[in-house]
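--- STAGE predict ---
source: upstream dedup step, 1 unique chain passed
mode: sequence only
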Amino acid sequence: MDSDYTDPAIVESALREWGEVFRQLPRIDAVFLHGGDPGHNAPQPLMALLAKETEVLHRYHPLAQMWVSPQSFNQTWLDDFLAILRIQQPVWLTGIVFGPQSRISLPDLRAAVPARNPIRHYPDITHNIQCQQCQFPVPDWDRAGALTEGRESINPQPREEARTFRLLQPHTIGFISYSEGSNDDVNKFVRSALGWNPDRDVTEILRQYSR
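--- STAGE serialize ---
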């Protein structure tokens, strides 16, 4: 969120700020940093910063993981990011996260990212209509309904969540959902249940949720 991570003074300030947060938390399993939304930094300074932040993280939480997403990257930045993964092979980086505002599809990202880097899905279960963040717009939604309800209305889509989960699951090692509140509660429950057992019947999952 800082202005320029090529400035050594800003980097040192960020290291102190993050380190104080890391120090105070009793346990951290993983840190996930968005390449964009929020923050928009080119891959080279971003990855250089994260390499240093990982050292600070491991000072307090030696087993904690570092993940990053190429969200909001333009084509040049995406190419630079993939080159870093292929050529520099950063050992501090646990894996890649695929979420909204990704320039290429999840299968294409999996093909482009070295096999040693796992990919975690960050599915957008909360937005309903085509906007910068929306990853899965409601299909064939009545225009009046879409304009009335808007981008973050209550939006249970159990069958669609199951469909996209099963379609994209083979390319990932799991997921955390892009959730922004109780409006997407059903979707969150369906994905969590399928994450535990992908073969579960969706109707039975909904019965469990309603109980």
